[in-house]
Amino acid sequence: MKILILCDRESLTYENIDLSSHIHKTLEKSGAKVQIIKLNGDEIKPCLGCFGCWIKSPGQCIMKSDIANKLAMMEIQSDVLVLISKISYGGYSYDIKSFLDRSIPNISPFFEIVEGEMRHKMRYDRFPIIISIGYGNCTKEEELTFSTLAKRNALNMRPPKHFVIIMKSVDKIDETLKSLKNALK
Questions:
Q1: How many distinct structural domains can be found in the chain?
Q2: DSSP for 113-159?
Q3: Rounded distance, CA 172 to CA 170, Å?
Q4: Rg (Cα) of the chain, in Å, rounded?
Q5: Is residue 173 part of a domain?
């Protein structure tokens, strides 16, 4: 199994621990091939909204001077995608959102109705399982917003499974890692 972890910069120092390393080590113990990439949103150019990835160069962003195309391809080639994001007003962190905005080449510009809702058609035969781990001290409303956002994003990509795990403080790390292990079963 190939697992790709994309984490934000803040996960490296969250409450004086490297949250991303704990998650990485837990996943490696499962016997999977794990790759971790620490994202820096400043190094990912903003999406132009030009739809070139859908029309001019299907499946590839027309901007080639940053890591976004490579990350999008790595995402598709993985069996599991783990997103580690600080919850920011109920949304993803800047680093994770920067990647997600530029990963739209992985979906088709065409639509279809799936389970009574409009979804993008799948560009590829399969998409990895998505596990979104949101962390940080947040309100119940922010937690609900993050959970809903992560679920809706996953549904549009249509992975075989998706999970959302919320870790409100570092003293919940053991629970978080246990939830992560259970998601992989």
A1: 1
A2: EETTEEEEEESSS---EEEEEEESS--HHHHHHHHHHHHHHHHHH--
A3: 5
A4: 16
A5: no
* 6-34 tens-digit pLDDT: 999 999 999 999 999 999 999 999 899 99
Note the pTM of the prediction, 2 decimals: 0.95
End-to-end CA distance of the chain, in Å? 12
pLDDT (tens digit, 9 = 90+) per residue, 149-178?
999 999 888 999 999 999 999 999 999 999
Joined together, the tokens standing for residue 93 give 């962190």
**pLDDT, tens digit, 9 for 90 and up, residues 120-136:** 999 999 999 999 999 99
By DSSP bridging, strand 117-122 and strand 107-114 are antiparallel
Q: State residue 185's pLDDT score.
A: 86
Of 93, 70, 86, 102, residue with least CA distance to 4: 70
Count other C-beta atoms under 10 Å from residue 27's C-beta: 24
On whether the CB atoms of residues 76 and 128 are closer than 8 A, the answer is: yes
Domain enclosing residue 35, as ranges? 2-167+178-184
